[in-house]
Amino acid sequence: MLSRLQYFPIGLFGAVMGWAGVALSYYAAHELMMLPVLVAQIMLGITVFIFVLMLTTYTLKIVNEFKAVKQEFNHPISLNFFPTISISFLLIGLLLNDSYPNWGEVLWFIGAIMQLILTLVIINRWIHHDTWEIVHATPAWFIPVVGNIVVPLGAVAYGYNELGWFFFSIGITFWLILKAIVMYRLIFHPFLQPMLIPTLFILIAPPAMGFLAYVALNNYQIDNFAHILYYAGLFITLMLFAQGKRFINVPFAVTWWAYTFPIAAITNASFLMYELSANKSFGYIASFFIALLTALMVHLTLRTLIAVFNKEICVPPKH
Questions:
Q1: Is the pLDDT of residue 219 over 90?
Q2: How confident is the model at residue 1 (pLDDT cuts 50, 70, 90)?
Q3: Are 10 and 81 in contact (CB under 8 A)?
Q4: Between these two residues, 3 and 150, which has the higher pLDDT value?
Q5: SS (H, E, C) the chain
Q6: What's the farthest any 2 CA atoms get from each other in the chain?
């Protein structure tokens, strides 16, 4: 048990983010398209179960295999997946706002504090280093940024608007900085390793989540900047869909979960555009995305369970 525990990947928290994203999508579909709320509640139950399972397992890893955790935290790529833990707290805190607001607010606060600490630590590690190179800059570097943009959704729900603006300002500023760095790396340097190719979908998340956060902070009014954020996210989604063959050929890995949360983000952004604009086109776009997201979640969950059964996860990395 412990020998395999040391290889438990931090990236598996992406499954929590993916399921949380799809749960939010189904709550929106319930409000706007009259889908049964039970479906969204089931999604929430699955999300909480996976979160507890992942958090318990990684806590055991910290206690029993701290050296492996330290190595993971010192790695220039896996380091950036640690905020998936804080983002998971934030998303579940947001999801529990209606049914268990007290618990939801506590989880959201824990996530916000963790997110701020991880952002400070990771940015400082980006700046003060002597071994990292431009090829280490991947779309996974957006994850610490996206976490800050997630905070305002709960901030508005629980009445902490100024705190929401604080985190939104961090996220949107560093998104623009990192976008330039990552695009430079993708264009002028060797392409990503196959296992990291799915992380390209993370490019969708900052503008899509930025749209959701900005509109919430702006009293749910869609202005010109909101349009820019939404359409930036939609264009990046179309750009990546146009490269579909490249993604289909990628061998299965834990990083496949990087597909889910960004697609959920643009799905939820499309639902919000539909709700606030009453333009049916956005309803069709949202319907397409939620159908795709549902199929993807079923496929990825089954594929991950098969990999667990075949002991293909929690094994030493292949070189």
A1: yes
A2: very low
A3: yes
A4: 150
A5: CHHHHCCCCHHHHHHHHHHHHHHHHHHHHHHHHCCCHHHHHHHHHHHHHHHHHHHHHHHHHHHHCHHHHHHHHHCCCHHHHCHHHHHHHHHHHHHCCCCCHHHHHHHHHHHHHHHHHHHHHHHHHHHCCCCCCHHHCCHHHHHHHHHHHHHHHHHHHHCCHHHHHHHHHHHHHHHHHHHHHHHHHHHHCCCCCHHHHHHHHHHHHHHHHHHHHHHHHCCCCCCHHHHHHHHHHHHHHHHHHCCHHHHHCCCCCHHHHHHHHHHHHHHHHHHHHHHHHCCHHHHHHHHHHHHHHHHHHHHHHHHHHHHHHCCCCCCCCCC
A6: 55
The alpha carbon of residue 241 and the mean position of all alpha carbons in its chain are separated, in whole angstroms, by 18
Structure-token pair, residue 5: 């525990």
Which candidate, 110, 101, 118, places its Cα nearest to that of 159?
A: 101
